Amino acid sequence: MHRKALEAWKGEPLTSSTVDIWTKRVPQMVIDEWYMVDNYHNDTGEGADFYSAGSSRGDGGNGLWTDGKLWVSKNFVDSRVLADGPIRITFELVYEPFDVNGKKVSEVKRITLDAGNNLDHFQSFYKPQGEAGPLVSGIGLKKVAGEKKEFNAEHGWLLSWQKVEKNQGMQGVAIIAEPKAIEKETEDKSNNLILVKVGPENRLSNWAGFGWDKSGQFAGAEAWKKYVDDASQAVQSPIELTVQKDE
User: Fold this and answer.
1) What's the distance, Cα to Cα, between the start and end of the chain in Å?
2) pLDDT in tens, 34-80
3) What is the per-residue burial (b if ≥16 Cβ within 10 Å, else e) of 140-170?
4) pTM of the prediction?
5) Would you list the domain boundaries of the chain?
6) How far is CA 47 from CA 17, 25, 33, 177, 212, in A?
C-alpha cells in the first residue's frame, strides 16, 4: 500500500492502491528489521522485496467495476491499527472519495493477517456520495508473462503460478471470494480479475495472499493450487465453537 505523500515524492512518485508482496522464507515477522538495515531488495537468507506491483492491482488489490472498466482509489490518506499481534494483526486504511464513472465513492479497507496463514482477509467498506445502484468490485492479480493462471468459479478462487522477479524462483498468488457473489472472471491491460457483487451495506469481503517455492511450503503449482482450494473450502465452512457453562 502507498501513502498519499508518494503521489508527489520527487524520488519515485506513485499513485496506487495496489497490494504489494514482500517475499519471505521464514515464519517470523521481518519488516521492521528489513527497514532498519534498508536492504530489503536483497535476500540475505530471509527473503526480500522482489515484487513490483506498480499501478496494477498487485496481489488482491481491488476497485469498482462499471461501464466495462475498473475504477480505483488513489493512495490512502489515513491508517489505524486495530490489533497488533502476535497471533493476529488488523489495521484499516482510509481512502478519499474517488471517481467511479462520474460518481464519488469513499472506501475504508480493513486487512487482517493471521500468523501462519498465507492468505489474508480483506474487507472494504464503501460509501457512495448520493444515490448509487448495486456495486460490483473488481479484485485483481497483476499479469505476469508466462504465468499459469486458473479460475474456479464453484470454489470461488482465481490463482496464478508465476516467476518471481530477478530470477528468484516461483511464487503463487491468489484471490478467494464468496462463490455466489462472483459474477465472472475478466481482465484489463494489467490485471487478471474476478468481478464480485458487493454485499449489503456496501461491504466487500475476500481473501488474498501468496506463497514462494523457496519458503519450502510449495514445491510447485499443484501444491499452491491445493493450498488455495483447501483454504477456499475452509472459508465457506468456518469452524463454529460453542462455549457452554457446566451446571
Assistant:
1) 51
2) 878 788 888 888 898 899 998 899 999 999 999 999 999 999 999 99
3) bbbbbeebebbbbeebbbbbbbbebeeebeb
4) 0.89
5) 4-236
6) 24, 6, 12, 28, 10
